[in-house]
Amino acid sequence: MLETAIIGAGPYGLSIAAHFRSRGISFRIFGRLMDSWQTHMPKGMCLKSEGFASNIYDPDSDFTLSHFCAEKGIEYADGVPVRLDTFSAYGAAFKERKGPELEDRLVTSLDRVPGGFRMGLDNGETVTAQKVVLAVGITHFEYVPANLAKLPPEFLSHSFRHHDLEAFRGRNVVVVGGGSSATDLAGLLHEVGADVQLVSRRTELKFHGGPTGKKPS
């Protein structure tokens, strides 16, 4: 039986794998590399977090986003937004350097068994592990209010389902929400030529709060 399995290959899963690897902990890690970032977030998006707060945590802190950008000649400085494609590429580079064990397989089932857990993979393999770490991100948690859920898919979709917004060019689109995801998406839709309305219950929209303390050194 495997000692530990990690489900998820985004920043958290990759970071956990890097730490396990440095400590000699036996594990296998499953998932599609940076899937939420590369498949479910809109092209052209920038991260809310500053570059110094967007590092994937590794045991030696020797491959930060700053290090990656310096290697690739990508602009990096306080106040310079981190682009989605930059962060996705950073995750891929982190995987090659810190977690090459990643298996590009989806876990399709997870059950309790005596002594641990049994997982089914999308290739038909069954894996048992004493412990399982879930680092599945936001991929499986889209939410649509019940009073909208019955609308046909050609009229209603969750923002999670849109990476390439070009299909909305020239169309009238209503974005429902008042958080950073909604405001960001509305702006990007406008940039591709959609006629956008943002509908929110909030009286004030706030994309990003101000700093609450000093930047870590």
Describe this structure in words.
With 217 residues, the chain is α/β, with parallel strands linked by helices. It folds into 2 domains: 2-134, 3-Layer(bba) Sandwich (FAD/NAD(P)-binding domain); 143-204, no CATH class. It is 24% helix and 19% strand. It contains 5 helices and 7 strands, in the order βαβαααββββαβ. A 5-stranded mixed beta sheet has the order 2-1-5-4-3, covered by helices on one side. Strand 6, helix 5 and strand 7 (195-199) form a beta-alpha-beta unit. The longest helix has 15 residues, at 84-98. It is globular, with a radius of gyration of 20 Å. The N and C termini lie far apart (42 Å). The model has no long low-confidence stretch (mean pLDDT 92).
Task: Outline the fold blueprint.
Elements: E1 2-7, H1 11-22, E2 27-30, H2 35-39, H3 65-72, H4 84-98, E3 107-113, E4 116-121, E5 126-134, E6 172-176, H5 180-191, E7 195-199
Parallel strand pairs: 1-2, 1-5, 6-7
Antiparallel strand pairs: 3-4, 4-5
**Overall 3D geometry?**
globular
CATH superfamily of the largest domain: FAD/NAD(P)-binding domain
Which regions are unreliable across 5 or more consecutive residues at pLDDT < 50? none
- Side by side, the strands of the main sheet go 2-1-5-4-3
Supply the CATH class of the largest domain: Alpha Beta
Strand segment tally: 7
Distance between the termini: 42 Å
Radius of gyration: 20 Å
Please provide the ordered H/E string of secondary-structure elements: EHEHHHEEEEHE
- For the record, the count of structural domains works out to 2
- Multimerization status: single chain
Structural class: alpha/beta
Fraction of residues in H or I helices: 10-25%
Q: Might you state the CATH topology name of the largest domain?
A: FAD/NAD(P)-binding domain
Structure annotation, total helices: 5
Largest sheet: 5 strands, mixed
Mean model confidence by pLDDT: 92
Give the strand content.
15-25%
CATH architecture of the largest domain: 3-Layer(bba) Sandwich
